[in-house]
């Protein structure tokens, strides 16, 4: 196993079409939908940066230039804020481009659809002795220690080929995700034997499911390039990780301390927004009152 240097890069997959949010996503990516006053993608970048990441590689598609604009300077706005003496807002917007070094790469149409395809897209941007963070652009987390940092710590301690974050979900929801079967007798108890994409609950090996936080060695990129498409003719990340596990490489499915919140569909997006709002001292009291008096009647 190669010795990998300090993890400095995060790849964020943001090349989907957000079809479940049409028409809102007709002219903007789902990752730019707001959770209160920041877009979804901003929270992901914050989590990565707070975990020690210095370079953010955003995998986008044609028409997603709004994300590139967001993480760039906006001279006219900055001038207006300065002229209006709104210095707190000025400092806020000026800090965004300085969060990290941003790199943008377009996912080409010839690649298969699926959550593993962005790995092929970034192949030339990751060195073959380099480990990196991989994030789904529609998954958020709440935790005292950033979930990404938790995975980096496990990776640095165990030196596997891959670490994926998992969380228990109600059995009624396991069919929506990739479920995990653990390897019996492994030196590290969270070593994955195999993952299964979107099985009915009667067939699922557990209710621990994969979500969009990972730390990968370059082995995963190599495996992605040689993994055939699977269910629904998509390139699934869980198939790539199964390939590595079958080859005898260590894949760790790590339960996280904290909470995973998805924004993948309108209902869960609303729930996630409410969860984040309840973390805000300036919002939570009035929001609780509103819910009690106007919603729950």
Strand order of the largest sheet: 5-4-1-6-11-8-12
Q: Which overall shape is indicated by the principal axes computed on the Cα atoms? A: globular
Extract low-pLDDT stretches: none
Mean pLDDT: 92
Largest beta-sheet details: 7 strands, mixed
Q: What value does the Rg take, in angstroms?
A: 20 Å
Number of helices: 10
Q: Ends: how far apart? A: 60 Å
Proportion of helical residues:
25-40%
Query: How many structural domains can be distinguished in the coordinates?
Result: 2
Structure write-up:
There is one protein chain. This protein is an alpha/beta fold and 297 residues long. It folds into 2 domains: 9-264, Spore Coat Polysaccharide Biosynthesis Protein SpsA, Chain A, CATH 3.90.550.10; 265-297, no CATH class. Helix content is 31%, strand content 22%. It contains 10 helices and 13 strands. It has helices spanning 40-49, 65-70, 75-83, 87-95, 117-121, 147-158, 218-224, 237-246, 266-277, 284-295, and strands at residues 9-13, 34-35, 38-39, 55-60, 101-106, 132-136, 139-142, 162-168, 178-182, 192-197, 208-216, 251-255, 259-262. Strands 5-4-1-6-11-8-12 form a 7-stranded mixed sheet, with helices on both faces. Strands 2-3 form a two-stranded antiparallel sheet. A two-stranded antiparallel sheet has the order 7-13. α7 (218-224) packs across α8. The N and C termini lie far apart (60 Å).
């Amino acid at each position: 196993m190669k010795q990998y240097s300090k993890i400095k890069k995060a790849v964020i997959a943001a090349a989907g079409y957000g079809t479940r949010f049409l028409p809102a996503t007709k002219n903007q990516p789902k990752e730019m939908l707001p959770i209160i006053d920041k877009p979804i993608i901003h929270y992901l970048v914050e989590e990565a940066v707070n975990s020690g990441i210095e370079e953010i590689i955003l995998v986008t598609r044609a028409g997603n230039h709004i994300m590139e604009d967001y993480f760039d300077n906006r001279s006219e706005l900055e001038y207006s804020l300065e002229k209006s003496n709104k210095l707190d807002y000025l400092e806020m917007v000026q800090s965004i481009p300085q969060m990290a070094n941003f790199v943008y790469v377009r996912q080409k149409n010839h690649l298969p659809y699926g959550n593993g395809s962005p790995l092929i897209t970034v192949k030339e941007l990751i060195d073959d002795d380099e480990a990196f963070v991989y994030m789904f652009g529609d998954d958020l987390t709440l935790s005292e220690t950033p979930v990404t940092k938790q995975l980096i710590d496990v990776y640095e301690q165990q030196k596997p080929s891959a670490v994926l974050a998992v969380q228990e979900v109600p059995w009624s929801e396991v069919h929506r995700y990739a479920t995990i079967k653990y390897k019996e007798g492994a030196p590290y108890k969270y070593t994955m034997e195999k993952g299964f994409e979107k099985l009915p609950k009667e067939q699922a090996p557990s209710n621990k499911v994969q979500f969009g936080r990972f730390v990968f060695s370059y082995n995963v990129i190599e495996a992605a390039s040689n993994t055939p498409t699977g269910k629904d003719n998509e390139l699934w990340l869980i198939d790539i990780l199964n390939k590595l596990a079958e080859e005898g490489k260590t894949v760790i499915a790590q339960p996280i301390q904290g909470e995973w919140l998805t924004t993948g569909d309108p209902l869960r997006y609303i729930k996630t927004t409410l969860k984040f709002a309840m973390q805000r001292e300036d919002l939570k009291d009035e929001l609780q009152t509103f819910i009690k008096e106007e919603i729950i009647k």
